[in-house]
Amino acid sequence: MKSAGNNTHRVRTRIIGTGSGIPDRVLTNFDLEKIVDTNDEWIAQRTGIRERRLASAGESTVTFGLKAAESALEAAGLTPDDLDMIIVATQTPDMPVPSAACLLQGRLGARKARAFDVVAGCTGWVYGLVVADAFIKTNPYFNIMVVGAEVLSSRVNWEDRSTCVLFGDGAGAVIVTGADNGQGLLASCIGADGSEWESLTIVGGGSMHPPTHETVDKKLQFIQMEGNKVFKLAVPAMEEMCWQVLSDTGHRPEDVDVFIPHQANLRIMEAVIDRLGIPVEKVVVTLDKYGNTSTASIPVALDEALRSGRIKDGDLVLTAAFGGGFTWGAALLQW
Ligand code: UT7
Fold first, then answer.
1. 164 catalytic, yes or no?
2. Region 50-54: what's the mean pLDDT?
3. Is 195 exposed, middle or buried (0-12, 13-18, 19+ CB in 10 A)?
4. 139 noted as active-site residue
5. How far is the CA of 223 from the centre of ligand 1 (A)?
6. HSE (CB half, 13 Å, CA atoms) of 101?
7. Which of 258, 235, 241 lies closest to 315 in space, CA to CA?
8. Set 122, 164, 189, 242: catalytic member
């Protein structure tokens, strides 16, 4: 079945513009071979990553968030004055206080926009979309920007080959508003299991381990991950929530035109589409070029799929993410 759902006149949260902010600096797998004990073959086969983009000196999460935001505003035909709210999903804000969203609001000059960050691991952008959706339900004329932005390279231990090969920097942004033409967000789900928090952490720099010489000497400021554990949690979580948003709307996997999973590992994506029965041609992959950009991965992939003409009006677009926390989320959109 391929339809806009039972009630086409209901107000839905519709994406009206997208944009990306990608760093210029490229770090290939071959460059990494010179830094740690790794090789292109291992990284490409185990992850699907060939290169990633990294921030240069002086660039931060908001640098890329701003680029993505300006591009999304242009695509939507809006100005910063039109924004009612800015939600930034990030795990690497420019600073603990203020939020990345407030810094972005100030840089954009979006004076009437409320602004706050969402922290939900790599699932943050999906959480942000769900929060925006809740506001659109009561304020259908709001224009809300949902950004996923990261400079994960600032939290990567470049001596730890098990993590440093995985991550990249960048940002993606979307602008949503209410629409009653049948297009928009059909269903979403988000979830968390805090008992699995230890599988992916940055324990240093918070109130439990404030930055001191000792915490820095112990390298607590860096990402620590039990990759295998995250992998095993991710695949069933992704599968289950995809089934949930599909069954909530009376759809089947074969109705999906474009699948945009969180870009963490090609083998995770393959395992998920194998379980769901979604053909590989329907999957958007940017992981090879950008690595795992955490909260930015889905909005960047969405922006590229739209700009390249891969997503057309009427398409059913499925997204799903997972991340540290442990968190997960999925969204089904009628384009
Ligand atoms: O956004 C959410 C964040 N995280 C994720 O999505 C991560 C999910 N997990 C993964 O993607 C995978 O678990 C990894 C890519 C992180 C690791 O792949 P794996 O197949 O689970 O490898 P492994 O950790 O079991 O390690 C296998 C071997 C080990 O060597 P031994 O013990 O078999 O001799 C590692 O030491 O590969 C070794 N290894 C490496 N070798 C070359 C680990 N990292 C590297 C490396 N280069 N970069």
1. no
2. 98
3. exposed
4. no
5. 14
6. 25
7. 258
8. 122
**Cα of 288 to ligand 1 centre, how many Å?**
16
| Widest Cα–Cα separation across the chain | 59
Q: Are 274 and 151 in contact (CB under 8 A)?
A: no
Say how many Å lie between the CA of residue 178 and the centre of ligand 1: 42
User: For 270-312, how does the pLDDT look when each residue is reduced to its tens digit (9 = 90+)?
Assistant: 999 999 999 999 999 999 999 999 999 999 999 999 999 999 9
Residue 247, number of CB atoms within 10 A of its CB:
11
- C-alpha span between 49 and 266 (Å, rounded): 8
- Give, as one character, the DSSP assignment of residue 55: P
Q: Is 59 helix (H, G, I), strand (E, B) or coil?
A: coil
Q: What tens digit of pLDDT does each residue of 161-208 get? A: 999 999 999 999 999 999 999 999 999 999 999 999 999 999 999 999
Contact in structure between 188 and 130 (CB atoms under 8 Å): yes
Which residue ranges have their beta carbon within 6 Å of ligand 1?
38, 42-43, 46-47, 122, 161-162, 165, 200, 225, 227-228, 230-231, 234, 264-265, 292, 294, 323
pTM for the full predicted model: 0.96
Asked whether the predicted pLDDT for residue 6 surpasses 60, the reply is no
Site to substitute for ligand 1 among 119, 162, 165, 269, most atoms within 8 A of C-beta: 162
Condensed to tens digits (0 to 9), the pLDDT of residues 94-104 reads: 999 999 999 99
Q: Residue 324 CA: which ligand 1 atom is closest? A: 2
Q: For 18, list phi and psi in degrees, rounded to 5.
A: -135, 160
Active site residue 292: yes
